Amino acid sequence: MTDWAKVWDETYAKQPQIYGEAPSQIAVQLAELLRHRSLPVRVLDLGCGYGRDSIYFAQQGFEVMALDCSPVAIQLLQTRIAGTELAARITTVVTDALQSLPAPDGHFDAVYAYLFFCLAFTDAELTQLFAECARVLKPDGYLAGTVRSVYDRSYGKGEQIEPDMFAVPNAVRHFFSERYLERKLTEAGFALRSLDRRDETVGESHFNDVLVFVAQKQ
Ligand SMILES: C[S@@+](CC[C@H](N)C(=O)[O-])C[C@H]1O[C@@H](n2cnc3c(N)ncnc32)[C@H](O)[C@@H]1O
């Protein structure tokens, strides 16, 4: 069985700036939605990497839990915020998100996940992950992020594991149709607020077709 933490550690050791420094457009969009909320505004950055978006959220005054399975990624984030005022607003966690999320029920105003759900998660694991996101969110909390779409140019490459899920060396990709994403969100108790298809370049990485979504817990 693949040790994904090790795979990601190796990626970040080789390419510590793989997704650049700038926050994602959808992180900025989510911050706007959260701005009117009463303090403290709490955000979980699921699969945060080295925390380019976690840092942006903390700069907006939000309390951030930055969670990733890669110790190397989290170390990069810790080094970047050490000695700054952001360190007090970002809690880092190294864990596999398939373990239950380390937060009480109804804790967060938002769960944010940039290119996370489209990784090596089966349909059953996605059901579990979306349910966990719903559990840790406040009743009107947001779940926002991006996933690779079924129109991505790498769709169909490698060995098929499940419908729309393929393994290539050192990566497993789960591609989402709009209908599949909406169904998973609805089944977990979310209402879809917006859904767009975009071509996104982040740092050294180009994704020709991602679904960008904002959902709200019902
Ligand atoms: C495509 S990267 C995106 C990183 C970050 N969100 C960004 O946009 O800069 C996906 C991240 O998910 C993390 N990851 C993969 N599987 C995970 C798991 N089961 N639990 C927690 N993190 C995981 C990886 O270590 C990696 O940092």
Molecular structure report:
This protein is α/β, with parallel strands linked by helices. The chain has one domain (4-217): 3-Layer(aba) Sandwich (Rossmann fold), CATH 3.40.50.150. It has 6 helices and 10 strands. The strands form 2 sheets. The protein has a 7-stranded mixed beta sheet, with helices on both faces. Strands 6-7-8 form a 3-stranded antiparallel beta sheet, with no helix packed on it. Bound molecules: S-adenosylmethionine (SAM).
Summed up:
The protein has helices at 4-14, 25-34, 52-59, 71-81, 123-136, 178-187; strands at 42-46, 63-68, 90-94, 108-114, 137-148, 159-162, 165-168, 171-174, 190-202, 205-217.
Rg from alpha-carbon coordinates: 16 Å
CATH architecture: 3-Layer(aba) Sandwich
Which cofactor or ligand species appear? S-adenosylmethionine
Compute the number of strand runs: 10
How many domains? The number is 1
Helix content: 25-40%
Top CATH class: Alpha Beta
CATH T-level topology: Rossmann fold
Largest sheet: 7 strands, mixed
What tags apply to this protein structure?
218 residues, 3-stranded antiparallel sheet, alpha/beta, globular, binds S-adenosylmethionine, 7-stranded mixed sheet
Secondary-structure map:
Elements: H1 4-14, H2 25-34, E1 42-46, H3 52-59, E2 63-68, H4 71-81, E3 90-94, E4 108-114, H5 123-136, E5 137-148, E6 159-162, E7 165-168, E8 171-174, H6 178-187, E9 190-202, E10 205-217
Parallel strand pairs: 1-2, 1-4, 2-3, 4-5
Antiparallel strand pairs: 5-10, 6-7, 7-8, 9-10
The structure holds S-adenosylmethionine.
Residues 4, 8, 19, 47-49, 52, 68-70, 73, 96-98, 114-116, 119 line the site of S-adenosylmethionine (SAM).
